[in-house]
Backbone:
């Protein structure tokens, strides 16, 4: 174990504490648990994927934020990271991967290509993955530095922490999925 | 005796005139045109005749010339390579825009299979008797043949791209 004194713990949510007990809202606890153990599913097709490899490795160490375990099965993943150019031929596969993920699930579009198609202003490239699946966080850059990817993940953790436990069964969420024609 | 461009031109002219024409040297490589109904026959001769021996098909590709006359708007170019004498030639077949169709050479060179599919995919040139003529690189649902000049390069569903940032502005901007 590290002897470093710079260990930072996640602060407790707002609540009421007394001797031997702590009371808070269920949504806060669920949000805290979800946000700090996001299992990433890397969907890497090009150079942003290489930056993500650096993000996973020792120097930047995505494990510090509770995302130690890469999930290469969509069924055990919470956070889909799409990194790189998505050709239109790849779009149905990306969609299928998204559909296979269990709720709750979040998506980060990493880099210019995944966000908008980037420099590939052409007939064969999907002009942003938000044309086929809903996206929660966009990370700009071509490719973004590992710090930016980490920033995107921290941004997503913020979203997850504050998400209502009922959001996934709400009509708005169903409308969102319906707008993408995802059952 | 090694195979020279002159010998190739002479042999082909003798055997196939008027189906072959317009012999010229471009980038140190002999090129000529073949009428579309003779393309299979000529390439078969080039491959199987012992004096020609073009045993290897380097490439098949399409070209679109929208400004040419109607019966020469599409072109299929075959690059052939004789490995024994290390001679390369280029065979061009011009096709009409109304019916860009040419005989497949898959029976001669199995390697032509994917290359002809690619040419079909991007130019809509059909190859008669191809074993599986369908799109190879683009998605199956695509309706256009994207390298024909009448189809725009850009994706038509794009919403957030400004032509100015892609160097595509008119002279006044």
Residues:
């Amino acid at each position: 174990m590290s002897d470093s004194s710079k260990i930072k713990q996640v602060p407790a949510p707002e609540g009421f504490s007394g001797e031997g007990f702590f009371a808070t809202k269920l949504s806060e606890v669920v949000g805290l648990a979800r946000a700090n153990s996001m299992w990433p599913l890397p969907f890497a097709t090009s150079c942003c994927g290489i930056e993500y490899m650096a993000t996973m490795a020792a120097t930047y160490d995505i494990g510090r934020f509770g995302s130690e375990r890469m999930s290469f099965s969509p069924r055990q993943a919470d956070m889909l990271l799409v990194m790189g150019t998505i050709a239109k031929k790849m779009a149905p596969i990306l969609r299928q991967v998204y559909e296979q993920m269990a709720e709750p699930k979040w998506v980060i579009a990493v880099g210019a290509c995944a966000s908008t198609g980037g420099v590939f202003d052409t007939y064969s490239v999907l002009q942003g993955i938000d044309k086929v699946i809903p996206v929660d966080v966009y990370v700009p850059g071509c490719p973004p530095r590992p710090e930016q990817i980490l920033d995107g993940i921290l941004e997503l953790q913020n979203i997850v922490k504050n998400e209502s436990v009922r959001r996934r069964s709400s009509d708005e969420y169903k409308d969102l999925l319906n707008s993408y024609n995802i059952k | 005796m090694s195979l020279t461009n002159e010998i190739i031109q002479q042999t082909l002219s003798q055997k196939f005139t008027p189906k072959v024409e317009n012999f010229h040297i471009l980038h140190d490589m002999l090129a000529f045109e073949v009428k579309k109904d003779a393309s299979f026959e000529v390439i078969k001769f080039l491959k199987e005749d012992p004096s020609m021996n073009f045993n290897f098909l380097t490439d098949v590709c399409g070209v679109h010339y929208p400004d040419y006359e109607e019966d020469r708007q599409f072109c299929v170019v075959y690059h052939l390579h004789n490995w024994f004498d290390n001679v390369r030639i280029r065979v061009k077949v011009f096709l009409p825009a109304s019916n860009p169709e040419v005989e497949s050479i898959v029976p001669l060179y199995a390697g032509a299979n994917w290359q002809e599919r690619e040419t079909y995919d991007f130019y809509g040139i059909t190859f008669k008797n191809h074993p599986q003529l369908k799109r190879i690189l683009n998605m199956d649902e695509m309706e256009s043949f994207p390298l024909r000049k009448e189809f725009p390069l850009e994706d038509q569903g794009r919403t957030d791209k400004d032509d100015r940032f892609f160097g595509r502005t008119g002279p006044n901007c």
Notes: The radius of gyration of chain B is 19 Å.
